[in-house]
TrEMBL record:
This is Colony stimulating factor 3 (granulocyte) a. InterPro entries: 4_helix_cytokine-like_core, GCSF/MGF. GO terms for molecular function: cytokine activity. It comes from the Eukaryota. One of its GO terms (biological process) is positive regulation of myeloid cell differentiation.
Length: 199
């Protein structure tokens, strides 16, 4: 009989992989994350008309200084579970990052000529926040509240070019954050082989 080699247990994971409610919320969160990732390119095309500002351009790193000048904060870091990066920390960083990008999009929204796809994106971010909040409530006993709006957010949008650069950089950063979220959520999924090995 073949044996399955299993690594060291991931901190805090084992108590939740067998929780059907958590796994159902996790599934919904993953679906919303994929929806957002699929929507970002269309939203970018709809509101960014500067030819040199491309979503997946290798030149985007050169705009880091502009992001700082405009006042776009970096997203919270996401990484695999460890002793130093617990499940609660992961979920809180997800919530903070979703709130940040929703606030950033809403800040730029009034200056956009085409808004519909960006508005839809903010709604999806809100829906995903609700799901992550549910997971956080399951993972800890003390009360959990919705994240507050990002404090001190003030973007320097002097002209139409700054608006174009701002929405471009926000969507680039959001795409990277959602990709990290997708990896983290997948790492929490219950593997059928793991489930069988529990018996």
């Amino acid at each position: 009989m073949a044996t399955t080699t299993r690594g060291a247990p991931i901190p805090e994971k084992s108590a939740l992989v067998g929780n059907p409610q958590f796994q159902e919320i996790l599934k919904d969160s993953s679906s919303l994350t994929h929806k957002i990732l699929q929507s970002i390119p269309g939203a970018h095309r709809s509101c960014v008309n500067v030819e040199t500002l491309r979503l997946n351009s290798s030149e985007n790193h050169k705009l880091v200084t502009l992001a700082s000048t405009i006042g776009i904060p970096s997203a919270p870091a996401l990484s695999a579970l460890s002793d130093n990066f617990t499940l609660n920390t992961m979920l809180r960083h997800m919530l903070e990052g979703l709130q940040l990008h929703k606030d950033l999009l809403n800040h730029v929204l009034p200056r956009l000529e085409v808004k519909d796809m960006v508005i839809d994106l903010t709604h999806d971010l809100n829906d995903l926040s609700v799901q992550v909040l549910k997971m956080l409530k399951l993972s800890q006993r003390e009360g959990v509240s919705k994240p507050n709006p990002t404090l001190g957010l003030a973007l320097d949008l002097r002209g139409s070019y700054e608006v174009q650069v701002a929405i471009h950089l926000i969507l680039v950063q959001l795409q990277g954050f959602e990709q990290d979220m997708d990896r983290c959520l997948r790492s929490l999924e219950q593997n059928p082989l793991e489930e069988e090995a529990e018996y």
